[in-house]
Amino acid sequence: MAFLEIGLKETIEHGSFTDNSPATFSLTDEDHTIANVVRFTLNQDPRVTFCGYSIPHPLEARVNIIVQTTGDPAREVLKDACQNLMLMCRHVRCTFDKAVEDFKASNVVKAMKIDSQDSSGDDSEESE
Amino acid sequence: MGQLPPHLELQRSRVSCNKDAPIHTESIQYSGAYASMGIDNSSRLDRFSNNFRVEVVRLNEDDMEFDMIGIDAAIANSFRRILIAELPTMAIEKVLIANNTSIIQDEVLAHRLGLVPIRVDPRLFLAIVENDQPNEKNTIVFKLHVQCKRGSPRITVKSDALKWLPNGSELVKETRNATSDSSSKPETYTYFCCSQETIPEFVKNPIIPKYPDIIIAKLGPGQEIELEAYAVKGIRKTHAKWSPVATAWYRMLPEVVLLEDIEDDLAEELKSKCPVNLFDIEDLGKGRRATVARPRACTLCRECIRGDDWEKRVALHRVKDHFIFTIESTGALPPEVLFTEAVKILEDKCERMITELS
After folding, report:
1. Where do the domains of chain B lie?
2. pLDDT digits (tens, 9 = 90+) for A32-91
3. B240 to chain A nearest CA, in Å?
4. Interchain CB contacts (distance < 8 Å): A and B
5. Domain B89-243 maps to which CATH number in 2.60.40.1180, 2.170.120.12, 1.25.40.20, 3.40.50.1400?
6. If contacts are CB pairs under 8 Å, which of residues 87-116 in chain A contact chain B?
7. Any idea where this protein resides (chain B) (predicted)?
């Protein structure tokens, strides 16, 4: 799918070579849209002791995400959080599509019922 | 897994809307928040999958209202932000004006043309990059040629005067190169290899502005407008004309709880106080009692808890994980498709983050 890129995207990890459990990830060309959700998913992970995000300056599209874990490398934990988020999104999409289909189907049945008001007979197999 | 005591459960799952201000508005996300009680607050994927539900309330061609239950405010807000700002649409970007003798200035006319919503599926087009030539895969060409003859009354130029040119631009470029091969096709400002009419989606639905009655300009006698407009793909972050939704918003489900039995006169008073008629009076044998009939319609005006003592009788809450989403589309895509695309964009962002971290 053609993506509309505004500027070059990059991610910089600020951390220490010896201890890789706390780290700060600086993402360019991102804003609250992705940072808040990632922060939420990180919080749900029991391996995370502290996480947060900040936007250093509102005119510059850059986000700093801080992660501190109970020993696991911060990069892995962040990747797992993104994976979880992707799976959640996929589940949301499936549930939503199914709900829309069910709604459209039940509307069709309702229209049919109104049309065939005279003809008796139970055409309500697809009740919701 | 144990249950939280009721007051903590209320704090965790409801926003209490008191008379002066709401409290407990932030969601308790930390996985170890209730660790001392032995309760795991982390939402693992399986629990999310089991609890998450979507219920569609209203679905029209242009707007929809649906409920999302079991999701957090952070994710709902992300969807809302993506719906508003990051879904690509087509809108007029370049306007080549051949003749404009109307009183509307060139740039004002071009600005107005850019804001006209176009009924076309933006997923069928590619985004145009800096040095790309406009071709049939990334540009839509419209033509506007209106003239008000001398002696005739003033005319209003509406958006249905914009005609789609599936074969590309008709304005010929002036080439100084006289020795260039005299090809049968003179060079125009776009480089269409084939007509856009051959694409099957456009055979059934030709590309037109969504609303044919948008006033673009007004012409007096003797005035003329002749121009070509090129529409390209963009997102609302760049300019508001590329917005796929008129707006998209959500609210949390309101909950009205009667803390004690409200009878007779008090019940009548409560019913008359509420401007949206939430409460109903049910007739018991020995008296009348108030019940909450339509909590969803509550606008949280707090009329029912105004006055002495009413706060002890009625409590207003909002359910923190039940969102009533409303999406109003401008017409390019139907609203349910817009939401699905927004979720896909969030997935793509996560995927990009994962690839960058590896």
Report:
1. 6-85+248-325, 89-243
2. 999 999 999 988 888 889 999 999 999 998 999 999 999 888 889 999 999 999 999 999
3. 15
4. 134
5. 2.170.120.12
6. 87-93, 95-100, 102-104, 107
7. Nucleus
